[in-house]
Protein: Major facilitator superfamily (MFS) profile domain-containing protein
Organism: Hypholoma sublateritium
Amino acid sequence: MYLVTLVVCCCSGDSGFDGTVMGGINSMVQYQRYFGMTGVGSKTSGTIPASYFPDRFGRRFSMWFGNAILIAGALITANATNKGMFLGGRFLTGIGSSCAGASAKSYLAEIAPAHSRGAYLGFLNSFYYVGQMTATGMMVSTGKWESNLSWRLPLYIQAVPAGINVLTIFLCPESPRWMCSVGKPDNARKTLARFHSSTNDVNSPLVDLEMREIDEKIAVDGADKKWWDFRPLFKTRADRYRMWMVILIGQLSGNGLITYFLPILLKNAGITSQNKQLTLNFVNSGSATVDRFGRRKVLLYSTIVMCVILAIVTGLLSEFGNAARANAGITFIYLFMVVFSYGWTPMQALYPAEVLSYEARAKGLAFLNIVSQASTLINTFGLPVALQRLGWKVYLIFLIWDVIEVIVIYFVVVETKGLTLEEINEVFEREHPKQYSEQLQRDIREARRRHGDGGI
């Protein structure tokens, strides 16, 4: 299971590299001189392939296809001789990264055992930072070169994790839930026995139970194959509730401001050295911890802390020209990203993939791409104007948004820790999913306590 997860995590490494590489390249004078551009941002949406390929051809093929497109885009971008070629390459890397990333979330959620699903999917999205650290760490060195290879080499390296996935993904088994949906229950049973049963017994009670749950919830050809029609995502009350949970996991908590435009923030704080900007961008590539305490608690408490940090940053950077306050503000900016990495980074892969039913998972995650890319458009095209005209007040805007997120998380978010995907589906079918999930978690804890007492 660890090797399979590592192969799938290359898709997250793709995303981390793709979302970070332009943050460093935008600050390189070598790149600015060559193209006369300073504000090329992140990726475009791969909604169409991400909503169709996973259900039609399987999760593995969709990852392979997305990474193959990403490799082509990375090579075009790295060899670009004009703006059109460069932007075209970035367009392809965005499509490929989005398609592979959405499929990776579906795949790992469906193949991982319920008791450790949070760890595996948390690790998947936390692997974003491996790609981020590779990109920014490399640019700390290449940024000192005078040649155009200073910005071309990182763009070449972007193809490496995608290449690993392309070469190895078909050595991994297919999602058991997808195999059931296309009439291959025997293959699905073998995969469940391999990864969920300690004895690898295809007839073990655990595998039998999981197969019954899957058979009850997944009909053959049950997934919606009409990629252009997103209405089924909002058809019932339970579907709409799930989609609100998916939309919640966006990119407007302030992280996009720092990830894509950190060089501008540093200049606003009085830090103008290119080497220092790249080095600080490397520090931004912190690590994230995997969920151990339940989804609600981690999201709620981390977002509260983010609000406090943004309030402090707003106060510190509200006065330009004060070096001490600027340095302190930059410190809290990095602390913000550490907290975000702990609370939100693992959840961005885990929670949407968990709450969506099988029939809607591929299309729902593709819709999440649309939401994320809408946020990216705001981050890419709106934030430069806002930073120029509003300066430190931009932090105040994100502070207000994060306060709203705290309220929504407290009153709406459903706890899914330790439940199978089919059990989570049942939770959302209830009249009050949040209250039912909390009662279910209390019952589970009480059952475990009684079981422990009985063992004594």
